[in-house]
Amino acid sequence: MKKLSFLIQIVVFCCLSLYIQAQSLSPQVVASGGTVLTAGGYSLAYTVGETATATLSSGSNILTQGFHQPDLQTLVKMLAKVYLQGPFNGATMNTSLQTAPSVFPLAQPYGGAPWNYNGAENLLSVPANAVDWLFVELRDASFNPVAGGKRAVLLLSDGTLRDVDGTAGATFTGAVPGNYYIIVRHRNHLAVMSAAQITLPNALAYDFTTAAAQAFGPNQQKALTGGAFGLYAGDFNADGVITVADFNFFSANAALINVYNDADANLDKQITVADFNLYQPNASTIGIQQVRY
Fold this sequence. Notes:
The protein is α+β, with helices and mostly antiparallel strands. It is built from 3 helices and 16 strands. A hairpin with a 2-residue loop joins strand 3 (about 55-60) and strand 4. The radius of gyration is 24 Å and the shape is globular.
């Protein structure tokens, strides 16, 4: 009888081990007490209860009994200001994507190629002054991507950024405070990188709009009316260069109306000659190596 009981325990353990290897588990718990605290660039999540005790382990997976224990994460805030040439009206940027019927997506649109970003940023409602979504990245001194250094955020009509939680700027979860280059991407404008490393978190927004030289490399921003500077319109396939491939993308989508489409350079929901007129003078503009896909 003891042998049978021992065999049953072995079988159960093996089954659990296989199950653990086949699953990707994240901490989830129902508890009577606990909270999430955020301060000074850190986030601390915890529940009240007994100490967690490991009971089974296999590879990089551990099955525990007890309550979810403290989970400390760093939060780095980045403030920036940027203009897009397409919707720029001489003072601010138009918010035509929200004109009824609105085509402004509630979920971030950078999940597909070439960005392949799997972030879950989404909205319950769109702020009235939101122009579109941006995709921002942090790079280290050698221009390499950093852990936790990607985020989809909203671009507001005055050029500032807003996170989906309503706070100013972009909040990077998992990145640590330090010096970074900032890359700003849009789905149909040429991406830019800051001219120098920025110390994050930053209380004063890094302002790309004041001079072309605020972007790394020569000829990386378009001179706009009023002495401002912004991202070149017309990189419809977002690969970091404006070429005939972008014209071909535009042609394939011409004459569409009331759409959220990457060929819509001026973000007015229509694919017309106005979008071609933005693309044509910018053809052959090449982004720096660090922003190309």
